[in-house]
Amino acid sequence: MQAGLLRVKLKHLDELNEERNRLASYYNEHIHNPLIHILQTRPGCYNTWHQYEIHCSKRDILIEYLKEKEIGTIIHYPIPPHLSNAYSYLGYHKGDFPITEKYAEEILSIPMYNGMTQEEQDFVIEAINNFK
Fold first, then answer.
1. Rounded CA gap, 114 and 132, in Å?
2. What whole-number distance in Å separates Cα of residue 49 and Cα of residue 18?
3. Sign of the four-CA dihedral 8, 11, 12, 18
4. In sequence order, which residues have a C-beta less than 8 Å from that of residue 73 and are 6 or more positions away?
5. For the chain, give me the number of helices (H) and strands (E)?
6. Rounded to whole angstroms, how far apart are CA atoms 122 and 107?
7. Domain limits of the chain?
8. How far is it, in rounded angstroms, from Cα 124 to Cα 112?
9. Nearest to residue 128, comparing CAs of 57, 58, 23, 32?
10. What value does the mean pLDDT of the chain take?
11. At CA 122, angle to CA 121 and CA 128, rounded to 5?
């Protein structure tokens, strides 16, 4: 079933990617909170934005704050690759890649999906901008 659905969606991949780029651009333009770091796409590069991630040093507090406002979040990559079981054979330890480890503690995905309305995005943006 999923393969059939994806086969249909594949025909619309460019327009789906363009929509997510518009959604990401809207977040980029409207999220203004010094506690929130927005990820940037390098000039000349193209991002498909299969998720929209922000960084916040107070991530756990932000998650609870957004949860109270019924805004779902997810931590897609809670464990840095070098600390995961899959790569344990490489012999890396905590502290070997401090920037990666810091990001794993701060990164958070906020709602973004094809079909998301501007009203829904504005609700998320207002909540994030009011986070203290």
1. 29
2. 9
3. positive
4. 62, 63, 66, 67, 108, 109, 110, 111
5. 5, 3
6. 21
7. 2-130
8. 10
9. 32
10. 95
11. 90
Which ranges in 1-117 belong to alpha helices (H)?
2-10, 13-30, 59-68, 98-106
2-130 placed in CATH 3.90.1150.10? yes
H or E stretch covering 110: strand 107-110
- Token digits for 11? 């025909």
Question: What tokens does 72 get?
Answer: 């779902």
Length of the chain (residues): 132
The first and second tokens of residue 71, run together, are 């805004």
Q: At what angle do helices 2-10 and 13-30 cross, to 10 degrees?
A: 80
pTM listed for this prediction: 0.89
Residue with tokens 């932000």: 62
In the three-class reduction of DSSP (H, G, I as helix; E, B as strand; rest coil), residue 37 is classed as: strand
pLDDT digits (tens, 9 = 90+) for 50-104: 999 999 999 999 999 999 999 999 999 899 999 999 999 999 999 999 999 999 9
Residue whose token pair is 């501007």: 118
